Amino acid sequence: MAREIVSLFKDIEEINKYILKHKVPDILFKELENCKAYTDKLKSHELSYLLEHHNNGENSYQVSLPFNLIEGSFLQSYLIYLGQFFRSYYENIPFEQTMRSVFMRKNHNHFDMYDFWINYAEKGSKNTMHTHVGNLSGVIYFTDCEGSPINFENNFSYKASKGDLLIFPSVMKHGVEEHQSDKTRITFAFNLYIETK
């Protein structure tokens, strides 16, 4: 089994120190499409502000993904295994030794649900340089970057395409300058946690 999982990440690429890029497999991207269809309905609801996700940045709308679309999904498993792969890659330990060491936090009794949310960035949206909670953080591009690349603290900037996923340490500062395009930039973001024994 571990060999099959590792082979899923055979084309992963280090685009800068401690930043890995992977292309989300098409079959998993379909799960993201289902998530977006659901959050589009939330976004257009008259009470959308009650479920809005409040964190750093000035996105047009952010909302956590619901339990029923995340729990037990192939997408959630993929992200957790990606976190394990990151550990194996940078800590120089066998992948098998990372098993059950990475998890996605579930916020019990709170509408923010998992540390997995969607960002809708309309013209004028921005995210100043910031860090995240957790150990590993990532962004998945549902659209391409629409002219708004992600910037990292080490002066590295990346213009992502649709389907790109970047994963990096949560303490690494990153941000996006003011969105200038009339096209909506849509990304999913997540945090992973590492539990070592």
Could you describe the 3D structure shown?
- The chain has one domain: Jelly Rolls, CATH 2.60.120.620.
- It has 4 helices and 12 strands; from the N terminus they run αββαβααβββββββββ.
- The chain has helices at residues 2-8, 26-44, 67-70, 74-91, and strands spanning 13-16, 19-23, 61-64, 102-103, 116-121, 127-130, 136-141, 150-152, 157-158, 164-169, 174-176, 185-194.
- The strands form 2 sheets. Strands 1, 2, 3, 4, 5, 7, 10 and 12 form an 8-stranded antiparallel beta sheet that branches.
- The mean pLDDT is 91.
> What fraction of residues sit in β-strands?
25-35%
Helix tally equals 4
Order of helices and strands: HEEHEHHEEEEEEEEE
Portion of residues within helices: 10-25%
CATH superfamily: q2cbj1_9rhob like domain
Question: What is the global morphology?
Answer: globular
Specify Rg, calculated over alpha carbons. Answer: 16 Å
Profile the largest sheet.
Answer: 8 strands, antiparallel
